[in-house]
Amino acid sequence: NGLPSGWGRLFKNGGGLYVGQFREGKAEGMGLFIFADGSYYEGPMLNNAAETTEGHFHSPTFDYRGGFHLN
User: Fold this and answer.
1) CB-CB contact of 16 with 10 (8 Å)
2) Is residue 22 classed exposed, middle or buried when 0-12, 13-18 and 19+ CB atoms within 10 A define those classes?
3) Each residue's pLDDT tens digit, 31-69
4) The pTM is what?
5) By the 8 A CB rule, do 5 and 22 touch?
6) What is the rounded CA–CA span in Å between residue 41 and residue 34?
């Protein structure tokens, strides 16, 4: 189908960077997303989103480990 699968990186508009696993063009599997402000999420991705019971979000003022669910 021509869509990337495997390990890679994606530079986002606005300065974000995703480094991790892709499946058919979507962030899926383990990865690290670094936001433009330097905060980051590390953990499993599903369908381009943090959707997991185990992830880590860190910013200069906040640190969270646990579940994520995006609607």
Assistant:
1) no
2) buried
3) 999 999 999 999 999 888 887 888 999 999 999 999 887
4) 0.84
5) yes
6) 7
